Amino acid sequence: MDVFGLKKITADKFIKNRLQNPVSRKKLKAGGIKTVGAVADIDLFRNYDFTTKLTKELGLLPHQFSFVLLDPTSQEVNNLEDNEVFNEKSFGLYGKIKSPALDDFISKEFDLLINYSSMDWTFTRVVLLRSNAKVIAGFEQEQDAIQDISINVAANRMDAFHNELFKYLKIMKFT
Q1: Distances from the Cα of 115 to the Cα of 9, 79, 147, 167, angstroms
Q2: CB neighbours of 175 closer than 8 A, spacing ≥ 6?
Q3: What is the rounded CA–CA span in Å between residue 70 and residue 48?
Q4: Reported pTM
Q5: pLDDT band at residue 151, thresholds of 50, 70 and 90?
Q6: CA angle, 4 then 8 then 9, to 5°
Q7: For position 136, which CATH number holds?
Q8: Is 91 within the bounds of a domain?
């Protein structure tokens, strides 16, 4: 853990700078969702299998879908492989990615990146801002300037979130 909170302070500076000077992303073309990424809190993953719902609804093969799990509490007690769960130790100063597995995930050009994680944790915003995704979707939150699609549904209503997300994707002709 960072004793003086220097990682968080510098990551917040990175976020502020990126929001003031946004980097343009490639645009998604109609009918163009071929790859999907997901960012989720580890607790959600333990309680809800969003992977099956997404792959079934979007007609994805396993190699077209990847996800990372974030652990804001930094509790290292989990049954998942270490390269799937990331916490504050996976980041350096100014939001630099220290983990090769997380860096690999962020560098992929996803057509759609879905954020299931809370934006309250600074490093969730770092992951979203550093990603090469064409479209970012997630729950509506205060800091939703990062997301292209923000869905106003309670965080514990996952099925309602997915129904709304798929509806918006169809309206925008992405599916």
Answers
A1: 22, 22, 8, 17
A2: 31, 33, 58, 166, 169
A3: 15
A4: 0.87
A5: very high
A6: 80
A7: 3.40.50
A8: yes
For 95-107, how does the pLDDT look when each residue is reduced to its tens digit (9 = 90+)? 999 999 999 999 9
- Residue length, the chain? 175
26 part of a folded domain: no
Judge whether 23 lies within some domain.
no
160-163: long-range contacts, CB 8 A cutoff, minimum separation 24: 162/50, 162/53, 162/54, 162/57
> Which range of residues forms the domain containing residue 129?
6-18+33-171
How does pLDDT run across 16-47, given as a tens digit for each residue? 999 888 877 777 777 778 899 999 988 888 88
The total number of structural domains that make up the chain: 1
Distances (CA, A) of 58 to 55, 64, 91, 96, 170: 5, 10, 31, 32, 11
Residue with tokens 């960072």: 2
